[in-house]
Amino acid sequence: MEQSAEHILACLSPAPSNARIIRTAATMAQAFGCRFTALFVRTPGYVNLAQEDKTRLRQHTLLAQGLGATVETVFGDDVSYQIAEYARLSGVTKIVIGRSAARRKHPWSKPTLTEKLITIAPGMDIHIIPDASTTPTYRPLPPKPRFLLRDLGITAALLALATVLSYVFSQVGFTEANIMAIYLLAVLLTSVATSTRISYILSALGSVLVFNYCFTTPRLSLRVYEHGAPMTFLILIVAALMMGTLTDKLKSQVTQSTRAAYRTNLLLETSQMLQKAQSEDAIFQVARSQLYKLLNRQITVCPGEDIPAEGDSLRYPIRVNDRLYGSVRIAGAEPLEAFESSILLSILGECALVLENSRNTREKEEAKLLAQNEQLRANLLRSISHDLRTPLTAISGNAGILLSGSDSLPPDTRHQMYSDIYDDAQWLYNLVENLLAVTRIEEGRMKLRTQPQLAQELVAEAMQHISRKKSEHTITVIHQDELLLARCDARLIVQVLINLLDNAIKYTPAGSAIAVSTCRQGETAVFSVADDGPGIPDAEKSRIFQMFYTGSNPIADSRRSLGLGLSLCRSIVVAHGGRMEVDDNSPRGTVFTFTLPAQEVMLHE
Question: Which pLDDT does position 326 carry in this prediction?
């Protein structure tokens, strides 16, 4: 179903009736088929929130996520302004919020959150859910007294320093306005350097008293003779308190912004690290380390299991839709903050998506490999069924004729039939050897028994087992080094030479010249089989080493080849640590070249 352009926003709070608001917004979002966001505005009063309210807020957050909402957290002092601004920037069309039964006691009382939101967002559809409960949204605990000796010392030191500077400036003729500015600066520095609100309040009061005592007439007395001095003192103390309050708020906002930036960077870093992870274990390790950075708690990750929470711990699943990849247990019963919970769920969601993509990629590769194997098996069965029929039919026919009336046949005819039977049987034997070799290579069971072998003997052995049609061609053997040794498995390399020679005989016309040569190049022994036949087109050179590829040379005999020879040859050579290449011969024809590790000749005198 196409998603609607509507966007529903529900406001999260610790109020008991907030669950009703969330469910109402979720029902609206489902009816409209649109996006659903649950927004929590974290104010400075959150730190003094009762534990009961923190627990309820966490329950409401999980409820919203379970109903399909995207949970977001913003920071600020003015809840209504933050809601309206987020709605404007995020394209929200409808806001669902609760209204307490409490009303303004006086017309001049501070407007309620609902009334203020309606005022600053007049173009927004605001759905107000009545709340009969008189429980306030926040029930801050009484702040613990934190009047530290360190803050008292800083306050006293700055006040004393301001007094000394003011005395010096008064001696050189500075006016009272300049001295008042020094004390205001002292209040500002106190609010920056201390961590308690009472510090800058005491600094403001102390500045007024010291200024009155030391720098107004009569000096060294708290009495004031000048007209308008009380108003000056009032302005001074109000200005000092305002500066301290604004500085305190700025410090709080900077702290919140720093934490938000750190967690955002952590989420970005997590995404980058997850993308680089090469295995599921690496993905889980990234999730564990990043969650520890975020929460500074003991993290336990159980892949593939949905572990229950034990005692003082929290549990979060790692899942995508209905597929569970594991779960995370977080030590400690203290509930997470709304923003921490949002980042944690984002990390786990990213982890689950990476695991899902990894599994999908692996399944696709396995399916592709399975399809390739099935195709290879189908090609193999089709080729075998076709290729075995021709020689077996010839063997069966010739043997039947010889059994039924061999005495009546001329000797030359009988000899030709015997020769055909031998050739067909030899071809079948080579076919079976190639199939067995291919099977061993595919299953990884091909064990090389390498020993130093004379290249001359390897070529000679291969020459004894090639096709009987070799008499129709001129075959020459050239050894540049009679004592060239190659470290190899003699049986397999002889098979490679047989396949290359049989191909040269098969794909060149009668009377063609075939040359087998060996030489040494550095640390390798080089074997070459060259012919002066029609050659191989450039378009086919990149495919002739593929399994079951037979090419389109019209000179080949009518018996179809399985296309295993060259693929098998390259696999054997590569298993020895060498390489096989094909190139054009000069002036015409084809050259197959392969290399093997050379062995030094040891001469004993």
Answer: 85
CA distances for 145 relative to 52, 53, 128, 196, 198, angstroms: 21, 22, 38, 9, 10
How much is the mean pLDDT over the chain? 78
Q: What is the crossing angle of helices 229-276 and 197-215, to 10°?
A: 150
Looking at domain 7-131, what is its CATH homologous superfamily?
HUPs (3.40.50.620)
CB 251 within 8 A of CB 192: yes
In the chain, % helix, strand, coil (3-state, to 5) comes to 55, 15, 30
**Of 573, 597, 594, which Cα lies nearest the Cα of 492?**
573
Measure the CA–CA gap between 357 and 349, rounded to whole angstroms.
12
CA distances from 389 to 123, 385, 574 (A): 85, 6, 33
The neighbour count for residue 377, using CB atoms within 10 Å, is 10
Beta-bridged to residue 598, according to DSSP, are 486
> Is the distance from CB of 489 to CB of 437 less than 8 angstroms?
no
- Output the six-digit token pair for 348: 């786990």
Q: Tell me the residue ranges of DSSP E strands in 430-481.
A: 451-454, 474-479
pLDDT at 548: 61
CATH hierarchy code of domain 447-599: 3.30.565.10
Which helix (H) or strand (E) is 581 found in, with range? strand 580-584
Residue 483: how many CA atoms within 13 Å on its side-chain side?
4
What are 569-598's pLDDT values in tens digits? 888 888 888 999 999 988 889 999 999 999
Instruction: Please tell me the number of Cα atoms within 13 Å of 24 on its side-chain side.
Output: 19
Return d(Cα 382, Cα 276) in angstroms, integer.
44
Task: Quote the CA–CA distance of 318 and 45 in Å, as a whole number.
Answer: 33
Q: What is the pTM of this model?
A: 0.43
Pair 39, 61: CB distance under 8 Å: no
Domain definitions of the chain by residue range: 7-131, 149-255, 447-599
Closest by CA to 595, choosing from 576, 473, 605, is: 576
Predicted confidence (pLDDT) per residue in 291-323, tens digit: 887 788 888 888 877 666 666 778 888 887 778
Identify the H or E element spanning 319: strand 313-320
